[in-house]
Amino acid sequence: MAYKVTGIRFNQYLKELEKEYLIFAPVALLGKGAFTNTDSVRYQKITKLEEVELTIKTNFSAKEILLPITETLFYFNEDNWTEPKVHDKKILLFLRSCDIHGIKRLDDIYLRNGCEDPYYKVFREKVRFCLIECYESFANCFCASMGTNITDEYDMFIRPEGDYVYVGINNKEMGRLDEKVVDLSPRFVMENKTKVSIPKELSKGLAQSVFWEEYSSRCIGCGRCSFVCPTCSCFSMQDIFYKENKNMGERRRVWSSCMVDGFTDMAGGHSFRKKQGDRMRFRVMHKFHDYKKRFGYHMCVGCGRCDDACPEYISIAHCANRLNSIVEEK
């Protein structure tokens, strides 16, 4: 069911939802980009539609709401430990099809990979999705190649047009609007300028190929590709001791990446992947091969953020296409 409402009425609707929901959406942050005099588009709490940036791809995905960059798991002292309080409100996320698929991948890792992560589960159960339509493909996107350009897993969707907003509601708990009812379905991008052909089979020989040596000379190990990725889920743990009392502190979960130095270090000085080419191989094989063997679909959702963020212009889409060419030549 979809409704045609004025922008003013839609903002009133958001105000009503705020009683039960924290509402997050892409917001343009002027002057907050990675470089001087550049802007950034990140997820922030919003109260009205005018705050939402609908025409630019976010620099980070909605992952940073579900899986905070730094998350306190518990506080401790000499005698006991306590978990932080969790707010009672549910969460409404405005996001695109590829990011909805991205959260599905996080669900696989944190909830369906042999055990359930209780911290992630608490947040995930609160989340509802508002689909943002993509009117055209953004630069470096290849969602159509990954099959993530279309989704029906949303609770509502919006389509602002002039002074009006079309609002489709799939979930009764989102309420209803006593306005004009229309027959409407979301529009999706069906083709991207960037196209990716993924090898059907990556042999062990290819995994050990000199192909990866190029990335040892190019990649600087900054990890930006992983941090902007909606499906990367790796983290490290930190115990923070307070200056006031060194017997008290907190344990934090902090984003990390298989692409940064030290991630695979072990006691005794051993490290699994010291070269950047080895790390690139691991990341690409996981996104396009290993994950699919376990869950039946690729981990990468084709949002193209890693290509957008890489300071060395390394493209995972180009890498996948090169691998496919090598496989086809054999």
TrEMBL record:
Keywords: Iron, Iron-sulfur, Metal-binding. It comes from the Bacteria. The lineage of its organism: Bacteria, Bacillati, Bacillota, Negativicutes, Selenomonadales. InterPro entries: 4Fe4S_Fe-S-bd, 4Fe4S_Fe_S_CS, Helical_ferredxn, Sulphite_reductase_A. Residues 208-240, 291-319 form the 4Fe-4S ferredoxin-type domain. This is Anaerobic sulfite reductase subunit AsrA.
